[in-house]
What does this fold into?
Amino acid sequence: MKILYKQSGKNERENLLASHGIEDCYLKRIVFSKDNSSITKKSHSHRGYEIHIIEVGSQKYEIGEKIYELSRGDVLLIPPRVPHKVVHSSSDAVKYSFALSILKNSGKSFDEADPTVEIIRVGEDMIESLESVYREYNLKKELSLVLIENRVFEILVSIFRRVGFEERAACGTSHEENAKLELAKGYINDNIDERISVGDVASYCYLGEKQLGRLFLRYEGVTVAAYIRNRKTERVEKLLSDESLSLKQVAEMMSFNNEYYFNAYFKKYYGMPPGEFRKTLKQ
It folds into this structure.
C-alpha cells in the first residue's frame, strides 16, 4: 500500500481541498498481491467517506446484507459510519482508495444529499487520471504535490457530481466577466505611465466602451476613466516621493507633454501643484 496523497492541512489559503470543505483526505493505492495480509477483513466503519476505485481485477464488498461486486472502472462510495468489509479480491486486484471528510453546512462548495452506498461506472479518463497521480508520485519532483492535489480535486468533484452531492451555485462575478475585468485592470496598471484612453482599454479587451464601462461601474464602482485617473495619480504620488526625480522628469515619465500640463492635471485633482504636494510629503 502506498499513500499517494495526504491533505497537508486545513488552511484554506494553502490547500485547494480545504477551501471547498474537504478535510483529512488520503489517497492510497493498494495492490492485493502485496498488501493482502494487511487488508482489513473484519466489518468496520469510518467517521468520513471511503471511495474505492478498481484499476485492475475485481473485489466484493459486504455492506449490510448486500454484496457489491466491483471491476475495473467501478467506483464504490461508502458514507460515514456504514459498516463494511471486503469479502473477496481477485489475485490481480489493484485499487485506489480515498478517505475524506466533508464539512457539513459550512457554506463551502458541497453538501451531502442523503448519502447512500453507491456504485457508479466511470470512464477510462478517471482511471488514467489516477494512474497519472501514481506516476507523478513516483517522479517526486518539486511540483509533483501541486499537480497531484489538483488532479485529486478534479477526480473528487467528478465523483461527487455523479452521486448527487449538492454543489453550490456560483455567486458574484461570472467567470467571464471577472476575467475581462482583470484583463482590463492589468492593461491599465501595466501602461499607466503612458497616455491611455478608455478606447485603448476597450480595444485591448475586445469590448465596446459601453460594455467596459458597465463592468467597471458594476464591480469597481467607478467609471473606466476614473479608474485610470486614480491609478495615474497613485503612480504620480509614488514618483514625487522620490526626491532624486525632478518635476520635469516625473512629467516626462508619466507622458505629459510638458510641465505645464502636468501641473494643471495634478492641481485639478489635488488642489495644489505637484511641487507643493512634494513638500507635504516631508512633513
